[in-house]
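Record passed on underneath.
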Amino acid sequence: MKLLVIEDDESLREIMTRALRAEGYIVETAATLFSAQDKIAGYNYECILLDIMLPDGSGLQLLRHIKELGKGDRVIIISARDSIDDKVEGLELGADDYLAKPFYMAELLARIRSVLRRGNASVNKVMTAGNISLDVHSRRASIGGNDIPLLKKEFDILLYFLQRPNHIVDKAVLAEAVWGDHVDMADNFSFVYAQVKNLRKKLTEAGATVNIKAVYGFGYKLTESDETNI
C-alpha cells in the first residue's frame, strides 16, 4: 500500500518514513504544500498523513483541494496544534482521523490500519483479469483457482496493472508507484525490468490468460495473452 507523508520537519519525516517502510508500506514524502499538490495530482494514495502547518500554506487548504478533486485517498491530519477548532474543521473537510503531536509511532500505525480498514470495508477485496485473481488484503494471487507464489514487489506490480487494464504504463511511473520516492536514487530501471521479467515468467508458466507486454519506447501494458506486442 502506498502512503504519502506531508511533513516539513525533516527529522520527524524521516522517522515516520523509516517506521512505515519497516511495516511494508510504500512511502512517498513532501515537505511543502506545493510539492504535496504535485504528488497528489499525479498519483493516488491509500492514506495521506497531513501536517497542518506547512511553510507555504495550510494543510487544511490542501485537504480541501483533495476533496474537491474527488479523490478517495484517506487522510489523517497530524498537527502540533491540538485545538478543537482545527479538529472540527479538518473532520468536516473530510479528514478520516486527527492525531496531535507529539505521538508514539505505535499509535500512528494503529490509526493508519484503522483508517485503511474502514476505507476498505466497501471496496472490492478481489481483483480479476482473465483467469488471474488477486486478493488485495490477504495478498494472495491465483490463476485458474490455483495459488501462485509471488514476491512482494511482483504482487504490487501485478496489482498496479490490474488496476489499469489496457493502459500503457511508463516504466518510470511504474517504478515510482511500486518502489516509492527512493527510486530516484537508482541509476537505471534494471530492477523494474528484472521484476517484470520474473513476473511474466511466473504468469506464463501458471497458464495465465493475460500477460504484461512490452510496448517499445513506452513501457508495459496488461493484455490478453493472444495479443501481440505493439
